[in-house]
Amino acid sequence: MYFGLTDEQKLLQATLRDFAARALPPPERRRLFEAGTGLDAELWSAAAEVGLVGLGLPQRFGGAGAPLLDVALAFEVLGEAALPGPFLGHALASLAIALGGSDAQRERWLPRLAAGEAVAALAIAEPGDAWTPESWTLAASAGALGGAKLFVEGADRADLFVVGTAGGGLALAARDAARVRTLAQDPLDRTRPLFRVAFEAARAEPLPGGREAAPAVLDAGRVLLAADAFGAAWKLIALTVEYALTREQFGAPIAQFQAVKHQLANLAAEVEPMRGLVWYAAHAFDEVPGQRAAEAAIAKAHATERALHVGRSCVELHGGIGFTWDCDVQIWVKRTMFDRAWLGLPRAHRERAAALAGW
After folding, report:
1. pLDDT category, 192, cuts 50, 70, 90?
2. Per residue in 297-333, is it b (16+ CB within 10 Å) or e — as a string?
3. Do 212 and 100 form a contact (C-beta atoms < 8 A)?
4. Could you read off the pLDDT of 117-164 as tens digits, one per residue?
5. Residue 314 pLDDT > 80, yes or no?
6. How confident is the prediction for the chain on average, in pLDDT?
7. Chain centroid to CA 156
8. Domains of the chain (ranges plus CATH)?
């Protein structure tokens, strides 16, 4: 059995890394981070042109028809580059329509979503860290939604919301300024701002296959968050190695100090095993459905928690400057904080994995 990437997958990552380097040089990344708006129209259009926003959608609707493993490889690059924009919510909302939508819903929305002409958001979280279908309480009746959702990525710019409803279903709600109101929440990651979204008798239509699609969409989200965290963790290590090679103390680069070498080596040893964990979880989503839920939960719990540990360690290795606003390390640390928290904290996913294993 071959455990590496295919030539096509290597080309995919190389192409996206080249795109990110050209579209997001460090000064532009810093500008967008400080602006904190998340979605930059020019960057979004450029990402759509390289196929990033429709990567996992069926080819008949203008997407690339890529399996989740390829989408996860793309999200590694997003994590490395700290690429701002609602790529996660857009990908998951689009997947929900592809898996659970009617033919008419797919025909209406998927071509626009694949082309980046419309932006979709996934609205599922409710108070009390309620992320899972069995905990959703937002009411949907007589073609209208009433209630609020929390931590919705990119809601201020979304044209379409895929909303988790009571009973574990999903519904589509197009933006209506009079009936859908957004309120910014404290930003955890300024590249991916979050919002509270209130639906005030907003017109909605259920996804016919929403109850069946919802668990798969959440599993895909867990995998993509793990992939993003994996990419961010490697970037943090690379930034810290670069700093250690240039920062001098007692007349020598701190990279020559044994304690610094050991810390960096230990961090690399923590991050590298994530690769197989994340890749296999993404592979299992499409190819080993019986293991999909457990592998997604384990990858989300482990990769996001260890990535945040790497981030904190890299801040410390940068010394006093690591705690300042001017140090770019914070961009990726906050990215790992988002990855760890969104869709629930590691403890919840470990409990889920244990329950699935019958423990």
Report:
1. very high
2. bbbbbbbbbbbbbbbebbbebbeeebeeeebbbbbbb
3. yes
4. 999 999 999 999 899 999 999 988 888 999 999 999 999 999 999 999
5. yes
6. 95
7. 17
8. 7-87 (1.10.540.10), 120-209 (2.40.110.10), 212-356 (1.20.140.10)
